[in-house]
Every structure is written in structure tokens, then in C-alpha cells.
Amino acid sequence: QLQLVESGGGSVQPGGSLRLSCAASGFTLDYYAIGWFRQAPGKEREGVSCITNSGGSTNYADSVKGRFTISRDNAKNTVYLQMNSLEPEDTAVYYCAAAWGCTSRSGNYGYWGQGTQVTVSS
User: pLDDT tens for residues 26-42?
Assistant: First the structure.
């Protein structure tokens, strides 16, 4: 069973930046596409970004395009989400998940991390 662990969350002011990390424990990530999702209290989970196993293709939700950047370092068994120009609407628990390929359907991701809290407020 692949275990994913997110880190890097915290509290920042609007316009600030954070870098989230998604690290695999016990297994290598190079076979998997990795997606980032987020969920605010009382709201449904939404897809944020995804990167293919090779890193050759990425995609982003319209709400974060131009502000967030996803990347991966397979040698370090880690995927990153650089978040710039953060807005209060970005406040949520952020999760990473692994699948065989990037997909908009959360049900296609077989492995999930525990989540890390991101809070953006003045």
C-alpha cells in the first residue's frame, strides 16, 4: 500500500506564498500521476492540479492557474505545489493523491494523503 504524506501548510496573509510537499513512504512515486485536491469546511472536494508520472504534462483548475505551480522530483520521491498570490478563497485542507494517470475523477485516485491545512487571512 502506497502511503502519501503532505506537509508545508500553514497560515499566511493574502498575497503570500506557500510550498506544499507530497512525499511517498515505502514506495517510489515514479509510476504514478499525482493530483492535488482541496476541501474547505462544508464544501465538496475539488481538484486543484495534476502532474503526470514523468512530469511532462501538468494541468490546473481555472481558479489557481497562473498562481500555482506543480512539479515533481522523482529522485526525492516527492511532488510539490508552489502556491503564490494566495487568496482567502484558497483556504482549505490540501490533499495529494496517486493514480495511473491524471484524471478529474477523484474516484480514480487509489491512494490519498492525510491532508495539510492552508489558511489565508488578513
Answer: 878 888 999 999 999 99
